[in-house]
């Protein structure tokens, strides 16, 4: 087991030092150092309430940390809202807030970054271009849906998750953050989403993965960070650890 | 979903396949088809029914009168549609029409030109919509409560500034607007058609339209994806207020005076037209043509019943029955 050792900042796509966040009197996490390396899948694990989700929300601008510094893509870069983070190249796949049921697959893939044609002072949607590009985005990640004109409501949980990951990756994001991407999925669907995450990695996209599933984390990730009771307690290479070691780190039995 | 193995190159079957259209027979057997097209089916049904029982109904003169009478409701239904699409409801819509009419009348009586008075009326009703939107989003108060409050508030305001008295508006511009026609339709019908076209483009062919449906469908998700849902809601209410202003001008032109009395059937019928038009009251699903045809259908119902010499007392009953029936069919909507 290693302590938190620092690597060269240029290797890190996203990093933070001494990060703290409190909600009133409740401490979410204190003095956290963390790094996600470029082109790798970086996992953050920990028990419920260990502070993983709050840490990630601070990194992507949902919460503003109380102290500490955040570096993104080599520059000190605190985001004051998720829109700024998105513009800088961080896309997030939210646990339950990923897609709009009543919109079509194509509309969801291009939501808030619609392609428009300018006609004089007016900007009209280029629906044809969006549908065509949506098909291209889906096939690049080998995702199969009946039609890009179908409402998302009628798709399965796995298809929906695949589409929200495709949405995140399709914007040319440098970093995709996923919060429990397979939490609500069946066995086959989980396997499909895992394959999708590997595919993203092959295409050079950096991924941060928050998960409860230690086996999944070891299968998918390169580096694993462990949080316990609001602190970052350890980081290990996924290839050099075992399920038992991770359990020990998470529970504090080591 | 089928994902091929990791190392497989771009799978031939991957991606979305081309859309296939269901057969006509399958379409006609699908209850959701009838739900989506309830207003059209209802309108056609009414036209056939009234056409057989009272042939005068289908005369050109009557159809023109029907369209003319429907224009105000069509414009209002469009405003209501934008609000309902965000999963809200604008109960102050008819009261805003009344206040707009009173302001138009008073400004005209005070020596304003009729055009300026019309602009003032539209600005006032748009401001009411803006106020509704700001109270709902910034105040975090339910739509129903806020617009119920402004319904009462602006009804009172209209009574106060008018002293409860109607104001005659004798303007040749408004008289022409009400009675003149271009081609087969009167000017108010053209106003309604223009409103339908503009609203349809705004809803289906602009980013605002998609963001509106996203906000109405799942506001939290939309916000998480960076859509400013509060702004979208405020815009929807402002559009509703704007439509109320246009309706106020058409109303004053039609009756020649500004009455400080609120026409409650206008509010209920605007919601009814939206429901008949297949717009989900839970937000996220909307069309413009649907509510516009719903408004036509409600007007045709009143017109036909009048031609059949049915007492006016039965009209609200008939509207109520039809709306509830439509809502029942909507349950089959997918």
End-to-end distance of chain B: 21 Å
Q: What oligomeric assembly is this protein in? A: heterodimer
User: What spatial order of strands do you see in the largest sheet of chain A?
Assistant: 6-9-10-3-11-12
Tally the structural domains of chain B. Answer: 1
Shape of chain A: globular
**CATH domain fold name of chain B:** ABC transporter involved in vitamin B12 uptake, BtuC
Estimated share of beta-strand residues of chain A: 25-35%
CATH architecture descriptor text of chain B:
Orthogonal Bundle
Assign the CATH superfamily of one domain in chain A: P-loop containing nucleotide triphosphate hydrolases
What's the total number of strands of chain B? Answer: 4
Distance between the termini of chain A: 9 Å
As residue ranges, the low-confidence spans of chain A are: 1-5
The chain pair forming the largest interface, with residue counts per chain, is: A-B, 49 and 41 residues
% residues in beta strands of chain B: under 5%
Number of distinct helices of chain B: 15
CATH class of one domain in chain A: Alpha Beta
Biggest sheet architecture of chain A: 6 strands, mixed
Determine the fraction of residues in helical runs of chain A and give it as a percent range.
25-40%
Q: Give the helix tally of chain A.
A: 8
Low-pLDDT runs of chain B: 1-19
Shape of chain B: globular
């Amino acid at each position: 087991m290693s302590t938190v050792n620092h690597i060269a900042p240029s290797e890190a796509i996203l990093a933070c030092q001494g990060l703290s966040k409190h909600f009133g009197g409740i401490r979410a996490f204190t003095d956290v150092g963390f790094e996600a390396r470029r082109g790798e899948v970086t996992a953050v694990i920990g028990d419920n309430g260990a502070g993983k989700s709050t840490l990630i929300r601070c990194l992507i601008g949902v919460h503003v940390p109380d102290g500490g510094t955040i570096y993104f893509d080599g520059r000190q870069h605190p985001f004051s809202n998720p829109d700024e983070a998105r513009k800088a190249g961080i896309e997030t796949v939210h646990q339950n807030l990923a897609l709009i049921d009543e919109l079509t697959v194509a509309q969801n893939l291009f939501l808030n970054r619609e392609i428009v044609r300018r006609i004089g002072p007016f900007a009209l949607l280029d629906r044809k271009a969006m549908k065509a590009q949506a098909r291209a985005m889906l096939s690049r990640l080998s995702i199969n849906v009946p039609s890009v004109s179908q409402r998302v409501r009628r798709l399965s949980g796995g298809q929906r998750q695949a589409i929200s990951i495709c949405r995140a990756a399709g914007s040319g994001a440098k970093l995709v953050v996923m919060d429990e991407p397979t939490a609500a999925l069946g066995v086959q669907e989980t396997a499909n989403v895992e394959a999708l995450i590997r595919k993203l990695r092959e295409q050079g996209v950096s991924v941060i993965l928050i998960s409860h599933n230690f086996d999944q984390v070891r299968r998918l990730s390169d580096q694993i960070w462990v949080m316990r009771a609001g602190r970052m307690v350890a980081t290990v290479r996924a290839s050099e650890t075992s399920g038992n070691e991770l359990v020990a780190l998470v529970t504090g039995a080591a | 979903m089928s994902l091929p193995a990791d190392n497989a190159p771009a799978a031939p079957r991957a991606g979305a396949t081309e859309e296939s259209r269901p057969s006509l027979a399958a379409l006609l057997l699908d209850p959701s088809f009838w739900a989506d097209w309830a207003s059209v089916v209802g309108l056609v049904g009414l036209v056939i029914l009234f056409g057989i029982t009272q042939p005068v109904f289908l005369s050109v003169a009557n159809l023109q009168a029907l369209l003319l009478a429907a224009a105000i409701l069509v414009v209002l239904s469009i405003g209501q549609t934008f609000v309902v699409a965000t999963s809200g409801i604008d109960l102050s819509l008819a009261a805003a029409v009344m206040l707009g009419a009173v302001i138009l009348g008073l400004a005209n009586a005070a020596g304003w030109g009729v055009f300026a008075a019309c602009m003032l009326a539209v600005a006032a009703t748009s401001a009411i919509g803006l106020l509704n939107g700001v109270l709902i989003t910034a105040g975090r108060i339910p739509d129903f409560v806020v617009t119920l409050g402004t319904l009462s508030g602006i009804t009172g305001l209209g009574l106060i500034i008018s002293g409860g008295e109607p104001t005659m508006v004798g303007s040749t511009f408004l008289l022409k607007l009400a009675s003149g026609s271009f081609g087969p339709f009167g000017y108010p019908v053209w106003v309604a058609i223009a409103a339908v076209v503009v609203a349809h483009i705004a809803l289906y062919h602009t980013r605002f339209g998609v963001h509106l449906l996203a906000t109405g469908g799942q506001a939290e998700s939309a916000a998480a994806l960076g859509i400013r849902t509060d702004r979208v809601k405020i815009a929807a209410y402002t559009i509703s207020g704007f439509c109320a202003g246009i309706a106020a001008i058409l109303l004053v032109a039609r009756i020649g005076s500004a009455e400080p009395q609120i026409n409650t059937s206008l509010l209920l019928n605007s919601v009814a037209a939206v429901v008949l038009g297949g717009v989900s009251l839970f937000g996220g699903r909307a069309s413009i043509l649907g509510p516009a045809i719903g408004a036509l259908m409600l007007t045709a119902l009143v017109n036909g019943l009048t031609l059949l010499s049915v007492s006016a007392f039965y009209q609200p009953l008939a509207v109520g029955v039809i709306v509830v029936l439509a809502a029942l069919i909507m349950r089959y909507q997918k």
